[in-house]
Amino acid sequence: MSSPRPIQKLSEDFRTAVNLSTSPGAVSTSPNASYINQARPRSYSMAKPAKALKPFSTGDMKILLLENVNETAIEIFNKQGYQVEFHKSSLPEEELIEKIKDVHAIGIRSKTKLTANVLRHAKNLVVIGCFCIGTNQVDLEYAAKSGVAVFNSPFSNSRSVAELVIAEIITLSRQLGDRSIEMHSGVWNKVSARCWEIRGKTLGIVGYGHIGAQLSVLAEAFGMHVIYYDVMMIMALGTAQQVPTLNDLLNQSDFVTLHVPETPETKDLMSTPQFAAMKDGAYLINASRGTVVDIQALVDALKLGKLAGAALDVYPNEPAKNGPLFNDELNSWASELRSLRNVILTPHIGGSTEEAQSAIGVEVGTALTRYINEGISTGAVNFPEVALRSLDLDQADAVRVLYIHQNVPGVLKTVNNVLAEHNIEKQFSDSRGDVAYLMADISHVNVDDIKSLYQQLEQTTYKIATRLLY
Ligand SMILES: NC(=O)c1ccc[n+]([C@@H]2O[C@H](COP(=O)([O-])OP(=O)(O)OC[C@H]3O[C@@H](n4cnc5c(N)ncnc54)[C@H](O)[C@@H]3O)[C@@H](O)[C@H]2O)c1
Ligand SMILES: O=C(O)CC[C@@H](O)C(=O)O
């Protein structure tokens, strides 16, 4: 194994990988058309140095980082001069509420629940970073309506999850977990009964997105036949085949692996009828979200011998920190599940590799910095995606207006009346559901006028949040 690379190098590699400029405002995983059309030519050419913007009225940027967010992100924030408070685990709700009152940004992973009840205390909050793929732990709609943009890392840990699943397929089919536990307790148990090669077996992938598709390619390299079920029509990779229903997948697969998001539709997607539809002696793998499997029903199917084994990485309730906490108090079936043979249990580590965590730190850290410093929301998961090219260094009297508002008719007329006292250099606005976001660069602004400009915008009827950068 090579030692971890210096952070600067990682950051450069990431930028090269996504093929964008070295401007901190330029990293994107899903550039929308407006971003490409408006921001690209100038930021790519790097013809003129960009003006570094500072916020009006926000004071020092305070960032709360929970759940051991990677040091690559901390380094990015420190470099910006933000005040960073770092915690290794998530926080109990009351403590979280106390801390969130004060901060402008928060970085979390999958454990911290940013519910409406928590977010309504976050009076200064501008942006949330989910340093992971899943965003189900955040009330995205409430955040958007409060003017808080949410960013995640859509695929930086996909490969790590896919590799874990490959390992689990082999581990289950060879009963490696049981043999290892036996040897650790001094028992030599050399058996071949019900141990199989994976070559020629059918892998059924439920959810053929970033992880499912990556896994499909790896599994075929091992000689597996791959079928998949997805609510969308998705192009097959290799010789994989999409099947029309979940039941079609279940009754053909030797291994069923789940890669769907947590949604109301995926709750208990796998329960008693679905286990009954699986082939006798098949295996189930879940590294998506704990709510997707009815675990009591899985325990029953395993006890009956209907399934030959299972691997679980995620659970409906997961401990907030490391320790001997996976017990019946947390999940009523925990000790029953722990006692079963050929069941691999891992503590939500699908994306927990050095490579994935470093890359996620850089990606989400950069997205947050870009949004805080320049207002660019490209890649936000809950928010209109808006970008403007940077202001030039010689535009000393220019101000960037960031105005989040309710998406109702007539707002822009009011706002442009306020802005029209100055020269509008460029502006761009977009909406998503009930929320709209306007970015405008205006020039010929006297520094003494900024306060009045801010107050006028703050007083407009449908305003959600205003930020001025100058
Ligand atoms: N264990 C871990 O550490 C870990 C790491 C990363 C991601 N995850 C979880 O894995 C999930 C999948 O990740 P991804 O990056 O592949 O997501 P993705 O969004 O790229 O793909 C999800 C796929 O599921 C499909 N889908 C949605 N609802 C469905 C349904 N009801 N039935 C069938 N298909 C459905 C979507 O159309 C999409 O193709 C994430 O949402 C996250 O919760 C877990
Ligand atoms: O790192 C985590 O806590 C979550 C990992 C994974 O579930 C994700 O959603 O990316």
UniProtKB/TrEMBL annotation:
What PROSITE patterns does its record include? ACT, D_2_HYDROXYACID_DH_1, D_2_HYDROXYACID_DH_2, D_2_HYDROXYACID_DH_3
Enzyme class, broadest EC rank = oxidoreductase
What CDD domains does UniProt report for this protein, alphabetically? ACT_3PGDH, PGDH_3
Cite a single GO BP annotation.
L-serine biosynthetic process
Q: Which reaction does it catalyse?
A: (2R)-3-phosphoglycerate + NAD(+) = 3-phosphooxypyruvate + NADH + H(+); (R)-2-hydroxyglutarate + NAD(+) = 2-oxoglutarate + NADH + H(+)
Superkingdom in the source lineage: Eukaryota
Q: Name one GO molecular function term.
A: phosphoglycerate dehydrogenase activity
Q: What are its E.C. numbers?
A: 1.1.1.399, 1.1.1.95
Tell me which UniProt keywords the record has, alphabetically: Amino-acid biosynthesis, NAD, Oxidoreductase, Phosphoprotein, Serine biosynthesis
Q: In which pathway does it act?
A: Amino-acid biosynthesis; L-serine biosynthesis; L-serine from 3-phospho-D-glycerate: step 1/3
Say yes or no: keyword ATP-binding present. Answer: no
Q: Which residues form the ACT domain?
A: 400-470
Quote the Pfam families the UniProt record gives: 2-Hacid_dh, 2-Hacid_dh_C
Task: Briefly state the protein's biological role.
Answer: Catalyzes the reversible oxidation of 3-phospho-D-glycerate to 3-phosphonooxypyruvate, the first step of the phosphorylated L-serine biosynthesis pathway. Also catalyzes the reversible oxidation of 2-hydroxyglutarate to 2-oxoglutarate.
**Protein family per UniProt:** Belongs to the D-isomer specific 2-hydroxyacid dehydrogenase family.
The protein depicted here goes by the name 2-oxoglutarate reductase
Q: Which organism is it from?
A: Kuraishia capsulata CBS 1993
